Amino acid sequence: MSSVMKKCITTDELKKHDKPEDLWISIQGKVYDVSDWLKDHPGGSYPLLSLAGQEVTDAFVAFHPASTRNILDNFFTGYYLKDYSVSEVSKDYRKLVFEFSKMGLFDKEGHIGFVTLVLIAMLFAMIFYGVLFCEGVIVHFICGSLVGIMWIHCGLIGHDAGHYTIMPSSWLNKFVFFLTANCLSGVSIGWWKWNHNAHHIACNNLEYDPDVQYVPFLVVSSKFFNSLTSHFYEKTLNFNSLSRFFVRYQHWTFYPVMCSARLVMVVQSQTMMLTKKNVSRRAGRGQELLGVIVFWSWYSFLVSCLPNWGERIMFVLASLLVTGFQQLQFSLNHLASSVYVGKPIGNDWFEKQTSGTLDISCPHWMDWFHGGTQFQIEHHLFPRLPRCHFRKISPFVKELCRKHNLPYNCSSFFKANEMVIGTLRKAALEARDLTNPKNLVWEAVYTHG
Fold first, then answer.
1. pLDDT tens-digit profile of 7-18?
2. Residue 188 CB-density burial (10 A; 0-12 exposed, 13-18 middle, 19+ buried)
3. Given 47, 235, 376, 432, which is the most exposed site by the fewest CB atoms within 10 A?
């Protein structure tokens, strides 16, 4: 009888196994030792480290197709979670994932990938033709703007290719990712996966989510004033005098910062690619270097072909300014939403994803403009789902939120801008009060400025 009895451990015992060399997780009550898998995990080590020693079924279901379960037995410890339980929210969430899978939605990517690639090719040809064979400041300004538009669509299709297969085969999918991210955008694939997976796992966590860690230029919460530790960057985000200076004016500088975000992203990703071998290893470091060289070759060539330095600077600024709109869209989805601190918890997946994201309401014919980012809640709950299905599944998500009295945050594009500026203004005033709390006259001017 004892030979068939299940060996069990408690949640508290599971929590003890939260180190890289001793990393256990629970999926549907079965306990797995993924310590040796850490370095080979396709999503990087950070998601596993963030949820180490916890029950992670919802996060696993969100990111992995059913076929992935076939390899789990290789890591099974023989233990089961004694006090394993499933909340009503999680039960309903998993039912939705199952229903969408049964409907085949995760496998039907539509024609967005092909159409976007054709558009990118057309934009690339127009840019080269305009710079090499046309004269005039206006034409070259338009060409610079088209580069920005091309980068936006490269970002959208690269994002899609990073989450699910948009091409008929996996190797072609990887090539599209390589082409749009490395060659055309100059962004490291390894860095993007590392950064983006961390964002999804710890959505709007001030200590774990890199997409809300903009110190010293922007902060969305006064909690940053305590110099929080970034577990993603593995350093303290010091809130010093320089940070206070920038943050005091952040609701004025927000849009200029968004316009420069593309440049910061390229520099950061390429720096990480060159200095952190573990970030670019799975993407292929040599391949990434080749792609980045291709990017700087064509972009530098175009800039050098312009007749003078004035037009060259104009061309570069136009491309950066236009791309800033995409960063603005991403920021609207999160910067005014709920934030939290502390280690991410695996058993409140649905709650944290819905509270930390904001949908942008728009008519059906404007979906092309937002590129799927308007359904951010749906994307965070179902990251493997092609964006062409977001509008279809939105009513199901709303109903589930309504059933469990959870927020389903949705605002117009202009209202979302107002909400973000309001959040930044609030933090700006609190930062000013740290240095001069008694200056009530300046406070009145600053508040209404």
1. 999 999 999 999
2. buried
3. 235
